[in-house]
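Project standup — Tuesday

K.O.: blocked on the structure for the chain from last sprint. Re-posting the sequence here as requested.
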Amino acid sequence: MKYYIWTLGCAMNYADSERIDFVLQKNGYQKTLVEREAETIIVVACSVRQHAVDRIYGKVKEWRLRDNLVTVLTGCLLPMDKKKATTLFDLLLDIKEINQLPNLIKEIKEAKKSRAKISPPDIGKIDYLSLDQKRESSFRAYVPISTGCDNFCSYCAVPYTRGREKSRHRLDIVAEVKSLVTNGYKEIILLGQNVNSYGQDLTDNKKETCEFINLIKEIDKIPGNYRVYFYSNHPKDMTAELVNALAGLKHFPHYLHLPLQSGSDRIIKAMNRHYTQNKYLSLVKKIRGAMPDVALTTDIIVGFPGETESDFAETAKVMEKVSFDMAFIAQYSPRPGTKAEKLLDDISAEEKVRREKILQEILKKSADKKNQQYIGQTLTVLIDGAKKDKLYGRTADYKVVEIKKSPRINIGDFIDVKIESATAWKLLGFFV
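H.V.: unblocked you, prediction finished:
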């Protein structure tokens, strides 16, 4: 009854893994962190990058050599991936059906003995977002507030793997956050594939953002010592009303992840992103006007089909203008079933690497300049990890901080740290 779970991809997949943990452990299963000890292996897949899919195929070929091992694939799966995976895994399970996993594993075990057919799961009996989670952390919690996406960015697989956007009831979310704060959680992360469009499926006005604003205001009223973050955001749904609301909240730090993807209007349009370079820069100006101390991070794709040197230069220009605190830069790879798959992937692998390196250098300069400003300040840090003789944590604006270990400090503590030096990627200081 031991199981091993391998999670790839975004925070939403990790939240789904916690739901799988809850369902299995409630039914007597025991989790192991050692793959070879498991009788069942569950993969929570990510189809955003081909590299992640290839890693899964490589591992399952090893697992198929083991007798009496049950292999399950769930998470974000494109139709083409499902077709191939059907021949490799014992069970392909829609993430919305995870409440049925214990019975299905039992059926597979019995079917392997008798060579009987496995009954397909019943779809739609339960809202999987309402399932409890077995939290991996005692201080940081993921709280999905919606699933799916209606944007259909041309490069993105999410609408095809997660389906259309569906929001949880606001009262259920607030109750969950309240319970987490009561139980001592210090960091709460609200999740959605397009988190700031929360509630648009509950109203006739598709440009309405008041549901999300009402949600975060309600959460902010919960008493306690905690921080709340949310992602992933879409610039088109970051309204002036939302920006002004965030500026006045107590428990929501001045930190925003605002995906750019490209600085070229031509490529932005080809990506189906529904903004322009000027609109993005105007939004950044509006955000910094309301929150001058805000930390901004972003996502960028290099080498999108048809991206000329001039298009790329526009992206580099925006990076320099905005001066991001951090950026997650990815090389474009086509995903089956998306609109961009039909476009010629005409940028060589070498050129994608070159463009990524250029943006990384721009990022390094802006991040280093930003981090140098923290030297001499005393910041509240949430300690979330340890390595050798060092402790690591995060400031309110999500800067990584390194300090020396101390017997007085535990993982999950809020502590005050005086910053004495900085690099582009982290702050260094001491406990005060």
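K.O.: great, moving the ticket to review. The mean pLDDT is 92. The longest strand covers residues 378-387.
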